[in-house]
Fold this protein.
Amino acid sequence: MVRYRPGAPEYHRRMPPTALRSAPLALIVDFGGVLTAPTVAATRAWCASVGITYRQFVGPLIAEPDGAPSLVHLLETGQLTAEEFERGLGAAITAASGVAVDATGFTTTVVGGAAHDQAMFDLLDEMRERGLRTGLLSNSWGNAYPMDVIDRYFDAYVISGEVGLRKPDAKIYELAAELVGVPPQRCVFVDDLKANIAAAEQVGMLGILHTDAATTRAAVLAALG
């Protein structure tokens, strides 16, 4: 597997000369909400448990005070650890809502606790059997990824907190394509967020908005012609 190595950017910016000829097509997928169950329901339940609305959670999460990067931007680009993010999120929600909120453990219990969708992993196996390269492109919430699973199913991966980029930045899609060894124009990309799909299409990928495994599988097979 090709991996991102912090401190060695030139390593994965160079593709072997035969990469394009040996990998004519690739399937690149998101992790949370695509390979796992959606986290929105769990997040809403957490909000109810601490006495706030979902909107009171989202507002501080994406707010950019005085033009500074949002908490989610800092987390997903690796500028905050999960623990720092949770402290900042709790403080921001408390300040904005007036409800004292302790967000300790949010990234592990709510985001990291989402069940895997085996049907999507079966799709990855099916595509690999058809000769496709497979890649993971994920915005990280603490980098708590099951590396044994990633090693099993993917030829390459890009985790936002390791590379200092996040979707929908065009550069992270281009990096994922380079690592998997296929130009963006020959990549199918699956994500559960419309903004991330739109950005992938801007760099030439074919985007598929994920709602469930069966619908995504049908769309991927259609893309293969």
Summary: The longest strand covers residues 133-138. Residues 40-111 form one domain. DSSP finds twelve helices and five strands in the chain.
